[in-house]
Amino acid sequence: MLKRKDLLGLRDLGRDEIIEILDTAKEMKKKIDNPALRDCTLGKSSIITLFYENSTRTRMSFMLAGSYLGGIVQDLGVAASSVSKGESLIDTGLNLDKMGVRFMIMRHQMTGAAAVLARNVNASVINAGDGTNEHPTQALLDMYTIRDYLGGFEGLKVVILGDISHSRVARSNAFGLVKLGAEVTLAGPSTLVSGSMKSLGVNVTSDIKGALADADVVMGLRVQFERQKNMPFPNTREYSTLYGINSSMLNYAKKDALVMHPGPVNRGVEFASDIIDGPNSVINIQVKNGVAVRMAILKLLYEAGASTDR
Amino acid sequence: MSLLIKGGRVIDPANGIDEIMDIFADGGKIAEVGRDIEKAADRTINAEGKWVMPGLIDLHVHFREPGYERKETIRTGSRAAAMGGFTTVCCMPNTNPVTDNDIVVEFIKLKAERAGIVNVLPIGSLTKGMEGEVLSDIGRMASAGVCALSEDGKSVLNAALMKNAMRYASMFDLPVFDHCEDPSLTGKGQMNAGAQAAYMGLAGISNDSEEVIVARDMILAESTKTPIHLCHISTKGSVTLIRQAKERGVRVTAEATPHHFTLCDEDIRDYDANYKMAPPLRSREDREAIRLALKDGTIGVISTDHAPHHVDEKNCEFQKALNGIIGLETSFCLAHTELVLGGYLTPSQLVEKMSTNPGRILHNGKGTLSAGADADITIADPNEQYTIDVDDMVSKAKNTPFGGREVKGRILYTIVGGEIVVDGGKLIKK
Ligand SMILES: [Zn+2]
What number is the ipTM of this complex? Predict the structure, then answer.
């Protein structure tokens, strides 16, 4: 059984813990389709979402997950709160602690922010993405989807493409998939994927065709286009020409390879539109599984807390 | 007041001494060093089994005053220095206002005099406001008594301005202490680039960010025929560059910090910002290169880069946390444990790095126990083993990753100008 206060990343999770979350998510999924099955698993625990970086989709997914299990869910509204008046993360956390918050679900632009919050508060902290570190619930929902379609992970070839070095999704997936026996390849332009990522136990390459060969799963990552001084590639057009996946590129992968993307997709950049809407794509299914996985995590952390007398 | 130190192992590399001897000091000066001195003294210290060294000198501390007194003050920093066996420290100019004119220099000297604990020597900035645009009032600061010039915290990015600064400083015989870092290569980096950064998901700082400026400024030292002192060298590549430059006669000296020869990036845990500093903790391989460079003399100086911060500036998001750790109270014990007991340095070489060589760079007559020199003396017990306890520290700040670490070697006496300021391991000044 999951025995921890917080869920900060897949780096620290054991193989069995990951399986337990995925198994629990399978049960939870029924509650999404059938409101009659929704209950008060979380016993009216209060759940706060703190999104220092905006993401409507992830935030809504967590808020729905919490309410389907009978939690009382609030969003802190970081932009409108004392945070914007310069309150420190730790002070914000301590205040919420005092007010009886049981779960703090945080997205933050800085690596390690969830860990810092977690060690300063009594509440359970769930990392909804921290800097360039981890996005564990996204990876768990990706893994849930992969297992659902392909039956397991052992020996699977998973290719993750795009802006690897800035991607917490790629990192969390790599940590989790490697633990469960998949062969993971991170691929992208040399300026967006660093050889030091090999320390995660993955292959690293800029050869996109080689990476795609016989792949079971092709996961695209959103490429960020904010104007920056030192762009890692010349322009979007060149990126999509060299690293975008269209149907002829997809032919290098296995015939029924899964096409995945954490969203939101830049159509015609990471994937051509016919791939996003094509038979291999499970992009829309990922979204539903996201709610189930987040319900599972809330339930397991709640039960872990109840059993350890906090 | 007169002082007799009996039977200690006197280690004074400047005079080639490493043997059991006595020292007699009178009127604030060393009067005599020799065997079996029998003289009446106001105070006699039995130093049997102890090391008796010229007072330790730290070329690189941040005492934060004026401007950041909640981190440290000249008084609290001086106390920490004394507890660490330092009799002379040089304070970096990144104060607020910046130490870029004679008025701030006079202020620091006044505060140091009032604290009256150790010798605190101000360092002036190379450029006005440390903004890298125009030279500071270097001549006026020289008259006011700065010991060196530095832009510590950053490099002067305009190479022509740096060249001018080095030339101008040499006219006043002022050493230049050079923080080497190209910020465009540091970028958003938070820790050493490499496997550990990839594992932790923190943006990396590559070794080249230091090395390009090390190379540039040694070339400038060569072309201007002026000396340069390179601060807190952290990479294997820098060591190679320095070694090559020394071979072709460039007047370069270099320092390393206790944290760079003790720790490496693999030690960083739980996003604990007490492991965050600039330059960052490097790889295991870099650490070994630093140790070997200390051993072969490529790096001749150990400096702490004592950088106090308030707890709120460290117990926060790693990326938000400020750079630097305190070091005065742990420098000797770490250097002794890691370098002497670790087999890299002899006791005499250790004293060279912590007193003799920094004294030579300051060329102010310190760093030696010669008769006639100021009676700045440090006595340590090399055999005392203990666990570093952050709560015992007297620095105002507590930002150090070394709490709980087992070390060997404790400072027992710090004597400044013949006056005992640490007595039997206890600070006796207010
Ligand atoms: Zn510096």
Answer: 0.86
